[in-house]
């Protein structure tokens, strides 16, 4: 009882008994030398509630009195307990040592080996095994600075933050207790059950579970580290696993990389989208797709690109370029071996394709990249050199090792046209057509064609003049048979076989009228011809149509001679005179 009475008496007279030696403070708690002394109201003073002993030792704590044994002090509703407390009454400042615990009015609790607290500024420092806990999380560090007026806590000596599910490692952090926002800087790492988030600056809202990124940040899938998200500015909803990416962002999934100006990715559904300068890179398949808008579906292993998209299949010798209104790529297990995946590319609406030795367009194009098979649907047209192939459907077969086209299959209304002499503008074209056609390539050029079903051909025939050793036009051969075998040479089309109901007639140039020199459905196209890869970037390059001059001089002279002979015969006939 005497001790308690003495303690109460001491507390009431403490302001007169304290030594005035200024306390040595942590730099965080230093007040400017120019600052005026603070006139503290009695109700704003730090109050001693309990202590087992009061001690004053000239050799200890600069002669200031201190309290030991279950010490409890209070300030503005917050309660600090410790094994030992030094109270600098005139400065309204305390130092607490041993098992310190600060209970704040907002429900947060700080425990540490020692603390310093300024009652005037309501700022404090906690050291040694510091732990701050509140209903949202637990912070552990070596030194923690806190400000009760702004309700902030800060550390820069490295620490961890745990919310029961996720653990955050960071060099420094500022915790805003009112908003429950943590501003993390310096080698930040957030370890969640499914993902690891790493970056230099992350702001995390513990109420909404939303993180904002500034600087190079990566979200890595722990089960599959190759699947990850990278951004230099973005937002991540940790509960729904949604990422909103706004600067230099990339989504890595299934060995592919999606980039764009603005991106969204849902890690739970595997759906992602991007707008502005979008590119889907597939290094394994050696192919990339570019466009203005793109979507990826990780679980289906598929992607879609629109807004002027184009795709490039990179090859060592000769790459292939595709363009259309919409491009889709996907992978599917091989039917013969589910462990092997095959890659496919689809180009829809006004599809175009470019390769140095073959260019084409169709309503849609389907390309089996693994097997090297390309299907062209609806009004397909394929150019190769000065040769053109059309039909209801065209199939191109590539040699996946040499990267060259081996052959074409033209199904329905097959029609092949070749310019007789590419160096002139003469209106002369070799033609072969039928129901079905197989075209064979040799050294990247069309070499041979086999036509089956109602096969017909129009072929310009030349011979070599024995004196001049120059080619001399003999005439045009019209052939019709069940099956035609044709050989494409440098300037000629040679019919090497014509079987099943074959008819073949050669007409000199003076005997064949111009209308019979072309089939009625002749469709040589120079306006839409793709001549360089950049031409695929527009619906049509819209080149000026090449105007060819028809060489009908011999036929016209023959017809003129016929007319003269007919006129002579008419003149010999007696004229009937009307009486």
Quick recap of the structure?
InterPro entries: LptD (IPR050218), OstA-like_N (IPR005653). Residues 43-197 form the Organic solvent tolerance-like N-terminal domain. Helices cover 6% and strands 56% of the residues.
Structure characterization notes:
The protein has 579 residues and is mostly beta strands. It contains two helices and 38 strands. The chain has a 38-stranded antiparallel beta sheet that branches. The longest helix is centred in the last third of the chain and has 20 residues, at 553-572.
Oligomer state of the chains in this structure: single chain
Beta strand count: 38
- Through-space gap between termini: 170 Å
- Structural class estimated from helices and strands: mainly beta
Q: Per the principal axes of the C-alpha atoms, what is the gross shape?
A: rod-shaped
The largest sheet, given as strand count, sense and whether it forms a barrel, is: 38 strands, antiparallel
Fraction of residues in helix: under 10%
Q: Which strand-content bin applies to the residues?
A: over 45%
How would you state the average pLDDT, rounded? 87
């Amino acid at each position: 009882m005497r001790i308690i009475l003495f303690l109460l008496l001491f507390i009431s007279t403490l302001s007169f008994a304290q030594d005035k030696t200024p306390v040595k403070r942590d730099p965080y708690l230093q007040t400017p030398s120019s600052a005026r002394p603070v006139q503290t109201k009695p109700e704003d003073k730090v109050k001693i509630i309990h202590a087992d002993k009061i001690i004053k030792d000239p050799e200890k704590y600069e002669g200031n009195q201190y309290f030991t044994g279950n010490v409890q002090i209070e300030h503005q509703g917050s309660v600090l307990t410790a094994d030992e407390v030094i109270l600098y009454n005139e400065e309204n400042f305390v130092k607490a040592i041993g098992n310190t615990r600060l209970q704040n009015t907002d429900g947060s609790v700080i425990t540490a080996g020692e603390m310093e607290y300024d009652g005037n500024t309501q700022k404090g420092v906690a050291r040694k095994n510091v732990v701050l806990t509140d209903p949202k999380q637990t912070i552990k560090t070596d030194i923690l600075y806190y400000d009760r007026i702004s309700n902030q806590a800060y550390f820069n000596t490295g620490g961890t933050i745990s919310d029961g599910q996720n653990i955050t490692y960071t060099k420094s952090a500022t915790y805003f207790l009112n908003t429950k926002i943590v501003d993390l800087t310096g080698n930040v790492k957030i370890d969640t059950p499914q993902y690891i988030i790493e970056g230099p600056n992350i702001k995390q809202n513990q109420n909404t579970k939303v993180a904002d990124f500034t600087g190079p940040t990566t979200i890595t899938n722990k089960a599959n580290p190759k699947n990850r998200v990278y951004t230099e500015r973005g937002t991540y909803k940790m509960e729904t696993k949604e990422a909103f990416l706004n600067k230099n962002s990339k989504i890595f999934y299934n060995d592919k990389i999606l980039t764009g100006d603005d991106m969204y990715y849902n890690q739970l559904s595997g759906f992602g989208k991007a707008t502005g300068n979008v590119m889907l890179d597939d290094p394994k398949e050696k192919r990339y797709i570019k466009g203005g808008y793109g979507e990826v579906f990780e679980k289906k292993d598929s992607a879609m690109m629109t807004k002027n998209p184009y795709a490039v299949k990179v090859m060592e010798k000769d790459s292939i370029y595709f363009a259309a209104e919409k491009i889709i790529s996907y992978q599917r297990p091989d039917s013969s071996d589910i462990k092997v995946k095959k890659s496919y590319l689809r180009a829809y609406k006004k599809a175009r394709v470019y390769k140095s030795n073959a260019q084409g367009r169709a309503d849609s194009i389907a390309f089996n990249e693994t097997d090297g098979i390309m299907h062209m649907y609806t009004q397909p047209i394929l150019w190769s050199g000065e040769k053109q192939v059309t039909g209801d459907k065209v199939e191109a077969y590539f040699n996946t090792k040499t990267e060259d086209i081996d052959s074409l299959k033209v199904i329905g209304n097959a029609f092949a046209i070749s310019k007789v002499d590419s160096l002139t503008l003469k209106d002369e074209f070799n033609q072969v057509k039928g129901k079905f056609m197989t075209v064979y390539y040799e050294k990247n050029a069309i070499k041979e064609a086999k036509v089956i079903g109602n096969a017909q051909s129009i072929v310009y025939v030349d011979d070599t003049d024995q004196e001049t050793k120059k080619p001399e036009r003999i005439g045009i051969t019209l052939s019709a048979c069940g099956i035609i075998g044709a050989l494409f040479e440098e300037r000629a089309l040679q019919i090497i076989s014509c079987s099943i109901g074959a008819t073949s007639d050669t007409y000199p140039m003076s005997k064949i009228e111009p209308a019979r020199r072309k089939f009625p459905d002749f469709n040589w196209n120079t306006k839409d011809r793709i001549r360089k890869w950049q031409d695929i970037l527009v619906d049509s390059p819209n080149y000026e149509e090449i105007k060819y001059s028809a060489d009908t001089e011999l036929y016209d002279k023959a017809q003129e001679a016929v007319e003269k002979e007919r006129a002579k015969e008419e003149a010999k006939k007696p004229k009937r005179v009307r009486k």
